[in-house]
Amino acid sequence: MSRAVIIIIIIIIIIIIIIIIIIIIIIIIIIIIIIIIIIIIIIIIIIVIIIIIIIIIIIIISSSTSSSYSILLLLLIIIINPSPSS
């Protein structure tokens, strides 16, 4: 009878270890996904900031001329529609 109890305890311990390992793997996957999402958001923010800086620089450079609006419009068209067909 004691042998059966020992085998049951060992099986329970193995099941608990497997569950803990699965939980750890799920947590690691979730953390990796969150990190990837944060990196993508940071990259998007950096790109937007760079585009805004470029627009501001172009406005400052061409503010003395009347072509600033056309340059700005062209830049906005390029940003909004970056496909080669444009």
TrEMBL record:
Question: Could you tell me the keywords of this UniProt record?
Answer: Membrane, Transmembrane, Transmembrane helix
Which species is the source of this protein? Dreissena polymorpha (Zebra mussel)
- Protein name (record): Uncharacterized protein
**Transmembrane stretches, start-end:** 6-30, 37-61, 67-84
Q: Which domain of life is it from?
A: Eukaryota
